[in-house]
Design brief:
Length: about 80
């Protein structure tokens, strides 16, 4: 079990490093998202996490508000949602 947690933490660290590298590579001239783009991204992310939570709960797993927030944050960091 501890190895599984350590592996997941290493994977998260790698995802964070990759995201940091993408941000640095974009530089100061990177496209700044508009309010409408940010709202659309949030809505897509929220819909994805809501669907994931519903699937988990359909299989008998309770998803707390904290877990839902963490899932949303991780999905956004991973870039799974445009």
């Amino acid at each position: 079990m501890a190895d599984d947690i350590h592996g997941r933490l290493r994977a998260l660290g790698a995802d964070l490093a990759a995201a940091e590298a993408r941000i640095k590579a974009a530089g100061a001239g990177a496209h700044a998202a508009t309010n409408a783009e940010l709202k659309a991204r949030y809505q897509a992310l929220n819909a994805q996490v809501t669907a994931e939570n519903a699937d988990l709960e359909a299989h008998g797993h309770h998803v707390s508000a904290l877990e839902s927030s963490v899932r949303m944050w991780l999905d956004r960091i991973a870039g799974d949602v445009p």
